[in-house]
Amino acid sequence: MDEMTMWGGRFADGPSALLRALNDSFAFDRELFAEDVEGSVAWAGALQSCGVLNAEEHAQIVEALRSLRLSDGEHEDVHSFVESSLRALVGPLAGKLHTGRSRNDQVATDLKLWLKKACDDASALVTSLVQALAQRGLGEAATPMPGYTHLKQAEPITFGHWCLAYAEMLRRDLSRIADAKSRGDECPLGSAALAGTPLAIDRESLAHNLGFARATSNSLDAVSDRDFAAEYLFASSLLLTHLSRLAEDLIFFTSDEAGYAELPDALATGSSRMPQKKNPDILELTRGHAARALGELTGFLALLKGLPLAYNKDLQLDKEPLFRTRTTLAVLLPALTALVASLQLNRERMAAAAGSELLLATARADKLAATGIPFREAHEQIGKSLDAKSSITVEEALASKNVKGGTAPQRVQEAAREILE
Ligand code: ARG
Protein backbone atom coordinates (compact mmCIF):
# COMPACT_ATOMS: atom_id res chain seq x y z
CA MET A 1 0.00 0.00 0.00
CA ASP A 2 1.39 3.38 -1.01
CA GLU A 3 2.00 5.61 1.98
CA MET A 4 0.49 8.56 0.09
CA THR A 5 -2.90 6.95 0.71
CA MET A 6 -2.90 8.83 4.01
CA TRP A 7 -5.09 11.19 2.04
CA GLY A 8 -5.64 9.47 -1.33
CA GLY A 9 -9.38 8.61 -1.13
CA ARG A 10 -10.85 11.45 -3.16
CA PHE A 11 -8.04 11.54 -5.74
CA ALA A 12 -8.13 9.72 -9.06
CA ASP A 13 -4.45 10.36 -9.74
CA GLY A 14 -1.45 10.03 -7.48
CA PRO A 15 0.60 13.12 -6.71
CA SER A 16 2.81 14.39 -9.53
CA ALA A 17 6.58 14.55 -9.26
CA LEU A 18 6.24 18.33 -9.43
CA LEU A 19 4.05 18.38 -6.34
CA ARG A 20 6.20 15.92 -4.46
CA ALA A 21 9.39 17.86 -5.09
CA LEU A 22 7.82 20.84 -3.35
CA ASN A 23 5.52 19.20 -0.85
CA ASP A 24 7.54 16.36 0.63
CA SER A 25 9.26 17.19 3.87
CA PHE A 26 10.73 13.83 4.87
CA ALA A 27 14.21 14.99 3.85
CA PHE A 28 14.25 17.31 6.87
CA ASP A 29 11.39 16.39 9.21
CA ARG A 30 12.92 12.92 9.64
CA GLU A 31 14.70 14.72 12.47
CA LEU A 32 11.39 14.36 14.37
CA PHE A 33 11.31 10.57 14.03
CA ALA A 34 11.92 9.77 17.71
CA GLU A 35 9.30 12.31 18.81
CA ASP A 36 6.78 11.05 16.26
CA VAL A 37 7.15 7.52 17.61
CA GLU A 38 6.93 8.76 21.20
CA GLY A 39 3.76 10.72 20.42
CA SER A 40 2.27 7.76 18.56
CA VAL A 41 2.92 5.39 21.45
CA ALA A 42 1.13 7.79 23.79
CA TRP A 43 -1.73 8.21 21.32
CA ALA A 44 -2.11 4.42 21.10
CA GLY A 45 -2.52 4.47 24.89
CA ALA A 46 -5.26 7.10 24.61
CA LEU A 47 -6.98 4.99 21.92
CA GLN A 48 -6.98 2.00 24.23
CA SER A 49 -8.35 4.06 27.11
CA CYS A 50 -11.41 4.98 25.07
CA GLY A 51 -11.94 1.55 23.54
CA VAL A 52 -10.75 2.16 19.95
CA LEU A 53 -7.96 -0.35 20.47
CA ASN A 54 -8.28 -3.50 22.57
CA ALA A 55 -5.41 -4.55 24.81
CA GLU A 56 -3.94 -6.90 22.24
CA GLU A 57 -4.10 -4.40 19.38
CA HIS A 58 -2.56 -1.78 21.61
CA ALA A 59 0.30 -4.09 22.60
CA GLN A 60 0.90 -5.03 18.96
CA ILE A 61 1.01 -1.42 17.79
CA VAL A 62 3.24 -0.24 20.63
CA GLU A 63 5.68 -3.11 20.17
CA ALA A 64 5.88 -2.45 16.44
CA LEU A 65 6.29 1.31 16.93
CA ARG A 66 9.14 0.73 19.36
CA SER A 67 10.90 -1.55 16.90
CA LEU A 68 10.87 1.01 14.08
CA ARG A 69 14.16 2.41 12.79
CA LEU A 70 14.62 5.46 10.64
CA SER A 71 15.53 4.66 7.05
CA ASP A 72 15.78 6.41 3.70
CA GLY A 73 13.14 6.32 1.04
CA GLU A 74 10.46 8.35 -0.68
CA HIS A 75 7.96 9.51 1.90
CA GLU A 76 5.76 12.57 2.11
CA ASP A 77 6.78 13.32 5.67
CA VAL A 78 7.91 11.65 8.87
CA HIS A 79 4.30 10.92 9.86
CA SER A 80 3.64 9.00 6.65
CA PHE A 81 6.96 7.24 7.09
CA VAL A 82 6.01 6.04 10.57
CA GLU A 83 2.53 4.96 9.47
CA SER A 84 3.71 3.06 6.40
CA SER A 85 6.53 1.39 8.37
CA LEU A 86 3.98 0.37 10.99
CA ARG A 87 1.72 -1.01 8.27
CA ALA A 88 4.58 -3.15 6.99
CA LEU A 89 4.74 -4.77 10.44
CA VAL A 90 1.12 -5.01 11.63
CA GLY A 91 -0.89 -4.70 8.41
CA PRO A 92 -4.25 -2.87 8.26
CA LEU A 93 -4.30 -2.49 12.05
CA ALA A 94 -1.86 0.39 11.48
CA GLY A 95 -4.77 2.33 10.01
CA LYS A 96 -6.44 2.49 13.44
CA LEU A 97 -3.65 4.56 14.95
CA HIS A 98 -4.75 7.71 13.15
CA THR A 99 -8.27 7.54 14.62
CA GLY A 100 -9.21 10.89 16.13
CA ARG A 101 -5.79 12.33 15.36
CA SER A 102 -4.50 14.63 12.61
CA ARG A 103 -1.04 15.34 11.37
CA ASN A 104 -1.74 18.87 12.55
CA ASP A 105 -1.83 18.06 16.25
CA GLN A 106 0.75 15.35 15.67
CA VAL A 107 3.39 17.65 14.17
CA ALA A 108 2.78 20.38 16.77
CA THR A 109 3.28 17.76 19.49
CA ASP A 110 6.42 16.35 17.85
CA LEU A 111 7.90 19.80 17.53
CA LYS A 112 7.21 20.70 21.14
CA LEU A 113 8.78 17.47 22.35
CA TRP A 114 11.80 18.20 20.16
CA LEU A 115 12.02 21.76 21.39
CA LYS A 116 12.06 20.81 25.04
CA LYS A 117 15.14 18.70 24.33
CA ALA A 118 16.71 21.48 22.29
CA CYS A 119 16.18 23.86 25.23
CA ASP A 120 17.80 21.37 27.60
CA ASP A 121 20.78 21.02 25.25
CA ALA A 122 21.16 24.77 24.94
CA SER A 123 20.95 25.24 28.71
CA ALA A 124 23.66 22.66 29.37
CA LEU A 125 25.98 24.18 26.75
CA VAL A 126 25.45 27.76 27.95
CA THR A 127 25.93 26.68 31.57
CA SER A 128 29.35 25.25 30.69
CA LEU A 129 30.38 28.52 29.11
CA VAL A 130 29.11 30.50 32.11
CA GLN A 131 31.19 28.24 34.37
CA ALA A 132 34.29 28.71 32.21
CA LEU A 133 33.81 32.50 32.30
CA ALA A 134 33.30 32.47 36.08
CA GLN A 135 36.40 30.27 36.61
CA ARG A 136 38.41 32.63 34.47
CA GLY A 137 36.83 35.56 36.29
CA LEU A 138 37.94 34.17 39.63
CA GLY A 139 41.48 33.47 38.44
CA GLU A 140 41.89 36.89 36.83
CA ALA A 141 39.96 38.93 39.42
CA ALA A 142 42.99 41.17 39.99
CA THR A 143 44.41 41.24 36.46
CA PRO A 144 44.28 44.86 35.23
CA MET A 145 43.33 45.67 31.68
CA PRO A 146 42.04 48.78 29.95
CA GLY A 147 38.28 49.15 29.89
CA TYR A 148 36.77 50.87 26.86
CA THR A 149 33.88 53.11 25.93
CA HIS A 150 33.49 54.14 22.29
CA LEU A 151 36.44 51.78 21.78
CA LYS A 152 38.61 54.46 23.40
CA GLN A 153 40.60 53.55 26.49
CA ALA A 154 38.47 54.72 29.41
CA GLU A 155 39.32 53.37 32.87
CA PRO A 156 41.17 50.36 34.20
CA ILE A 157 39.11 47.24 34.85
CA THR A 158 40.14 43.67 35.53
CA PHE A 159 40.03 40.87 33.01
CA GLY A 160 37.94 38.97 35.55
CA HIS A 161 35.36 41.74 35.48
CA TRP A 162 35.20 41.53 31.70
CA CYS A 163 34.62 37.74 31.94
CA LEU A 164 31.79 38.17 34.42
CA ALA A 165 30.04 40.77 32.25
CA TYR A 166 29.53 38.04 29.65
CA ALA A 167 28.59 35.53 32.35
CA GLU A 168 25.74 37.89 33.32
CA MET A 169 24.46 38.16 29.75
CA LEU A 170 24.51 34.39 29.41
CA ARG A 171 22.73 33.92 32.72
CA ARG A 172 19.89 36.02 31.38
CA ASP A 173 19.94 33.87 28.26
CA LEU A 174 19.58 30.79 30.44
CA SER A 175 16.49 32.20 32.08
CA ARG A 176 15.01 33.08 28.66
CA ILE A 177 15.63 29.54 27.43
CA ALA A 178 13.99 28.10 30.55
CA ASP A 179 11.07 30.44 30.00
CA ALA A 180 10.62 29.38 26.37
CA LYS A 181 10.66 25.78 27.50
CA SER A 182 8.09 26.21 30.23
CA ARG A 183 5.67 28.23 28.10
CA GLY A 184 5.88 25.60 25.37
CA ASP A 185 5.30 22.79 27.84
CA GLU A 186 1.69 22.13 26.76
CA CYS A 187 0.51 19.13 24.77
CA PRO A 188 -1.51 19.78 21.56
CA LEU A 189 -2.41 16.10 21.03
CA GLY A 190 -6.18 15.61 21.09
CA SER A 191 -6.78 18.84 19.16
CA ALA A 192 -7.03 16.77 15.96
CA ALA A 193 -7.13 18.82 12.73
CA LEU A 194 -8.51 22.00 14.32
CA ALA A 195 -11.73 21.39 16.27
CA GLY A 196 -10.71 18.78 18.86
CA THR A 197 -10.89 15.01 18.77
CA PRO A 198 -14.30 13.33 18.90
CA LEU A 199 -12.88 10.60 21.16
CA ALA A 200 -13.59 10.58 24.88
CA ILE A 201 -9.99 10.75 26.02
CA ASP A 202 -8.40 12.37 29.04
CA ARG A 203 -6.12 14.97 27.47
CA GLU A 204 -4.46 15.88 30.76
CA SER A 205 -3.24 12.35 31.43
CA LEU A 206 -2.17 12.03 27.80
CA ALA A 207 -0.14 15.24 28.25
CA HIS A 208 1.45 13.89 31.44
CA ASN A 209 2.26 10.57 29.80
CA LEU A 210 4.28 12.49 27.24
CA GLY A 211 6.07 14.47 29.93
CA PHE A 212 4.19 17.73 29.32
CA ALA A 213 3.09 19.94 32.20
CA ARG A 214 -0.47 20.23 30.86
CA ALA A 215 -2.73 19.97 27.80
CA THR A 216 -3.32 23.00 25.54
CA SER A 217 -6.55 24.97 26.12
CA ASN A 218 -7.80 25.73 22.61
CA SER A 219 -7.64 23.34 19.68
CA LEU A 220 -7.45 26.07 16.99
CA ASP A 221 -4.55 27.72 18.77
CA ALA A 222 -2.86 24.42 19.60
CA VAL A 223 -2.41 23.29 15.98
CA SER A 224 -1.20 26.63 14.67
CA ASP A 225 0.72 28.05 17.63
CA ARG A 226 4.45 28.25 17.05
CA ASP A 227 5.21 30.82 19.76
CA PHE A 228 7.37 28.30 21.58
CA ALA A 229 9.54 27.96 18.47
CA ALA A 230 9.72 31.72 17.95
CA GLU A 231 10.75 32.14 21.58
CA TYR A 232 13.49 29.54 21.20
CA LEU A 233 14.75 31.33 18.10
CA PHE A 234 14.64 34.67 19.88
CA ALA A 235 16.44 33.34 22.96
CA SER A 236 19.04 31.77 20.65
CA SER A 237 19.43 34.94 18.58
CA LEU A 238 20.03 37.05 21.65
CA LEU A 239 22.42 34.44 23.01
CA LEU A 240 24.29 34.49 19.70
CA THR A 241 24.25 38.29 19.76
CA HIS A 242 26.01 38.14 23.13
CA LEU A 243 28.47 35.57 21.84
CA SER A 244 29.11 37.76 18.84
CA ARG A 245 29.99 40.69 21.10
CA LEU A 246 32.31 38.46 23.10
CA ALA A 247 33.88 37.32 19.84
CA GLU A 248 34.36 40.90 18.68
CA ASP A 249 36.07 41.83 21.97
CA LEU A 250 38.38 38.84 21.75
CA ILE A 251 39.23 39.50 18.12
CA PHE A 252 40.35 42.93 19.22
CA PHE A 253 42.20 41.69 22.34
CA THR A 254 44.12 39.17 20.22
CA SER A 255 44.85 41.64 17.42
CA ASP A 256 48.43 42.67 16.74
CA GLU A 257 47.42 46.20 17.72
CA ALA A 258 46.06 45.39 21.21
CA GLY A 259 48.08 42.24 21.86
CA TYR A 260 46.42 41.58 25.23
CA ALA A 261 45.87 37.91 24.55
CA GLU A 262 46.77 35.06 22.24
CA LEU A 263 44.65 32.17 21.02
CA PRO A 264 45.97 28.69 21.77
CA ASP A 265 47.30 27.10 18.56
CA ALA A 266 44.69 24.35 18.60
CA LEU A 267 41.89 26.92 18.43
CA ALA A 268 43.33 29.18 15.74
CA THR A 269 43.90 28.81 12.01
CA GLY A 270 46.75 29.82 9.73
CA SER A 271 46.94 31.49 6.35
CA SER A 272 47.81 29.55 3.20
CA ARG A 273 49.74 32.56 1.95
CA MET A 274 51.07 34.58 4.90
CA PRO A 275 53.23 32.41 7.16
CA GLN A 276 53.05 34.72 10.18
CA LYS A 277 49.25 34.73 10.44
CA LYS A 278 47.22 33.24 13.28
CA ASN A 279 43.55 33.77 12.60
CA PRO A 280 40.56 33.82 14.98
CA ASP A 281 38.18 31.79 12.77
CA ILE A 282 36.11 30.47 15.68
CA LEU A 283 35.38 34.03 16.75
CA GLU A 284 34.62 35.24 13.24
CA LEU A 285 32.28 32.32 12.64
CA THR A 286 30.55 33.21 15.91
CA ARG A 287 29.82 36.67 14.51
CA GLY A 288 28.67 35.11 11.26
CA HIS A 289 26.37 32.63 12.98
CA ALA A 290 24.81 35.46 14.99
CA ALA A 291 23.97 37.20 11.73
CA ARG A 292 22.39 34.03 10.36
CA ALA A 293 20.38 33.41 13.54
CA LEU A 294 18.92 36.91 13.37
CA GLY A 295 17.84 36.15 9.83
CA GLU A 296 16.26 32.85 10.92
CA LEU A 297 14.24 34.65 13.60
CA THR A 298 13.06 37.36 11.23
CA GLY A 299 12.09 34.82 8.58
CA PHE A 300 10.24 32.76 11.15
CA LEU A 301 8.13 35.67 12.39
CA ALA A 302 7.38 36.63 8.79
CA LEU A 303 6.19 33.05 8.19
CA LEU A 304 3.67 33.36 11.02
CA LYS A 305 2.37 36.86 10.66
CA GLY A 306 -0.11 36.38 7.82
CA LEU A 307 -1.55 33.00 8.76
CA PRO A 308 -5.31 32.67 9.19
CA LEU A 309 -6.42 30.14 11.79
CA ALA A 310 -5.78 27.31 12.00
CA TYR A 311 -3.08 25.08 10.37
CA ASN A 312 -1.61 26.18 7.03
CA LYS A 313 1.06 24.38 5.05
CA ASP A 314 3.39 27.37 5.38
CA LEU A 315 4.05 25.90 8.82
CA GLN A 316 5.92 23.00 7.27
CA LEU A 317 8.75 25.50 6.79
CA ASP A 318 9.00 26.14 10.54
CA LYS A 319 11.39 23.26 11.15
CA GLU A 320 14.65 23.85 9.33
CA PRO A 321 15.48 27.15 11.11
CA LEU A 322 15.01 25.34 14.41
CA PHE A 323 17.13 22.38 13.39
CA ARG A 324 19.89 24.64 12.06
CA THR A 325 19.90 26.75 15.21
CA ARG A 326 20.27 23.71 17.47
CA THR A 327 23.14 22.41 15.34
CA THR A 328 24.85 25.80 15.40
CA LEU A 329 24.68 26.01 19.19
CA ALA A 330 25.96 22.45 19.55
CA VAL A 331 29.07 23.25 17.49
CA LEU A 332 29.72 26.81 18.55
CA LEU A 333 29.30 26.79 22.32
CA PRO A 334 31.81 24.03 23.14
CA ALA A 335 34.41 25.73 20.92
CA LEU A 336 33.90 29.05 22.70
CA THR A 337 33.99 27.38 26.11
CA ALA A 338 37.35 25.81 25.28
CA LEU A 339 38.62 29.10 23.92
CA VAL A 340 37.64 31.09 27.00
CA ALA A 341 39.23 28.48 29.28
CA SER A 342 42.52 28.40 27.39
CA LEU A 343 43.00 31.97 26.16
CA GLN A 344 46.58 33.02 26.90
CA LEU A 345 46.79 36.46 28.46
CA ASN A 346 49.64 38.89 27.95
CA ARG A 347 49.32 40.29 31.47
CA GLU A 348 52.29 42.68 31.25
CA ARG A 349 50.90 44.33 28.16
CA MET A 350 47.42 44.60 29.67
CA ALA A 351 48.79 46.04 32.92
CA ALA A 352 50.98 48.56 31.08
CA ALA A 353 48.02 49.81 29.06
CA ALA A 354 45.72 49.85 32.10
CA GLY A 355 48.25 51.83 34.12
CA SER A 356 48.81 54.58 31.56
CA GLU A 357 48.17 58.09 32.80
CA LEU A 358 45.32 58.56 30.39
CA LEU A 359 43.38 55.68 31.91
CA LEU A 360 44.04 56.87 35.44
CA ALA A 361 42.75 60.39 34.78
CA THR A 362 39.27 59.65 36.09
CA ALA A 363 40.57 58.02 39.26
CA ARG A 364 42.81 61.05 39.83
CA ALA A 365 39.85 63.41 39.42
CA ASP A 366 37.88 61.25 41.88
CA LYS A 367 40.76 61.47 44.33
CA LEU A 368 40.89 65.27 44.03
CA ALA A 369 37.14 65.49 44.45
CA ALA A 370 37.43 63.41 47.62
CA THR A 371 39.43 66.29 49.17
CA GLY A 372 36.36 68.52 48.86
CA ILE A 373 36.92 70.16 45.45
CA PRO A 374 33.74 69.94 43.29
CA PHE A 375 34.14 67.10 40.76
CA ARG A 376 33.62 69.49 37.82
CA GLU A 377 36.70 71.49 38.89
CA ALA A 378 38.75 68.38 39.56
CA HIS A 379 37.80 67.09 36.08
CA GLU A 380 38.91 70.41 34.54
CA GLN A 381 42.18 70.45 36.45
CA ILE A 382 43.17 66.89 35.53
CA GLY A 383 42.05 67.44 31.95
CA LYS A 384 44.48 70.34 31.62
CA SER A 385 47.46 68.59 33.15
CA LEU A 386 47.27 65.06 31.79
CA ASP A 387 51.01 64.90 31.27
CA ALA A 388 51.67 65.44 34.99
CA LYS A 389 52.84 62.44 36.95
CA SER A 390 49.97 60.28 38.05
CA SER A 391 49.34 60.35 41.74
CA ILE A 392 47.43 57.09 41.82
CA THR A 393 48.38 53.52 40.95
CA VAL A 394 46.29 51.18 38.87
CA GLU A 395 45.81 48.96 41.91
CA GLU A 396 44.44 51.88 43.90
CA ALA A 397 42.16 52.86 41.04
CA LEU A 398 40.80 49.30 40.80
CA ALA A 399 40.39 48.90 44.56
CA SER A 400 38.44 52.16 44.75
CA LYS A 401 35.58 50.65 42.67
CA ASN A 402 34.56 48.68 45.72
CA VAL A 403 30.82 48.65 45.20
CA LYS A 404 28.48 45.81 44.31
CA GLY A 405 29.01 45.17 40.61
CA GLY A 406 32.24 47.19 40.58
CA THR A 407 35.62 46.10 39.24
CA ALA A 408 37.49 46.02 42.60
CA PRO A 409 39.27 42.63 42.65
CA GLN A 410 37.56 41.62 45.87
CA ARG A 411 34.12 42.32 44.37
CA VAL A 412 35.00 40.42 41.22
CA GLN A 413 36.10 37.44 43.29
CA GLU A 414 32.87 37.50 45.26
CA ALA A 415 30.77 37.75 42.11
CA ALA A 416 32.64 34.87 40.48
CA ARG A 417 32.20 32.69 43.58
CA GLU A 418 28.49 33.41 43.62
CA ILE A 419 28.17 32.10 40.06
CA LEU A 420 30.33 29.06 40.74
CA GLU A 421 28.39 28.07 43.87
N1 ARG B 1 4.54 17.82 7.10
C1 ARG B 1 3.54 18.65 7.66
C2 ARG B 1 4.16 19.81 8.45
O1 ARG B 1 5.27 19.69 8.79
C3 ARG B 1 2.68 17.86 8.58
C4 ARG B 1 1.32 18.41 8.77
C5 ARG B 1 0.52 18.20 7.54
N2 ARG B 1 -0.80 18.66 7.70
C6 ARG B 1 -1.61 18.92 6.67
N3 ARG B 1 -2.78 19.36 6.94
N4 ARG B 1 -1.24 18.71 5.44
O2 ARG B 1 3.56 20.81 8.70
Spans where pLDDT lies below 50 across 5 or more residues: none
Provide the CATH top-level class of the largest domain. Mainly Alpha
Tally of DSSP helical segments: 17
The hetero molecules present are:
arginine
Instruction: Report the sheet-strand fraction.
Output: under 5%
Structural class: mainly alpha
**Which architecture of the largest domain would the CATH scheme give at its second level?**
Up-down Bundle
Number of domains: 3
- Series of H and E elements: HHHHHHEEHEHEHHEHHEHHHHH
How far apart are the first and last residues' alpha carbons, in Å? 59 Å
CATH homology group of the largest domain? Fumarase/aspartase (Central domain)
Report mean pLDDT, rounded to a whole number: 95
Task: Strand order, main sheet: write it out.
Answer: 1-2
Overall morphology: elongated
Helical percentage: 55-70%
Entry summary:
The chain has 17 helices and 6 strands. The protein is mainly α and 421 residues long.
Describe the structure.
This protein is mostly helical and 421 residues long. The chain has three domains: 3-99, Fumarase C, Chain B, domain 1, CATH 1.10.275.10; 104-141 and 159-189 and 220-347, Fumarase C, Chain A, domain 2, CATH 1.20.200.10; 352-420, no CATH class. Helices cover 61% and strands 5% of the residues. The protein is built from 17 helices and six strands. The protein has helices at 17-23, 26-29, 33-49, 55-67, 78-90, 103-139, 159-183, 203-209, 219-224, 227-253, 281-305, 319-342, 347-354, 357-370, 375-384, 394-399, 409-420, and strands spanning 144-149, 152-158, 186-187, 214-215, 261-262, 344-345. A two-stranded antiparallel sheet has the order 1-2. β3, α8 (203-209) and β4 (214-215) form a beta-alpha-beta unit. α6 packs parallel to α12, α6 (103-139) packs antiparallel against α17 (409-420) and α10 (227-253) runs antiparallel to α11 (281-305). It is elongated. The termini are far apart. The model has no long low-confidence stretch (mean pLDDT 95). Arginine (ARG) binds next to α6. The site of arginine has 10 residues, from α6.
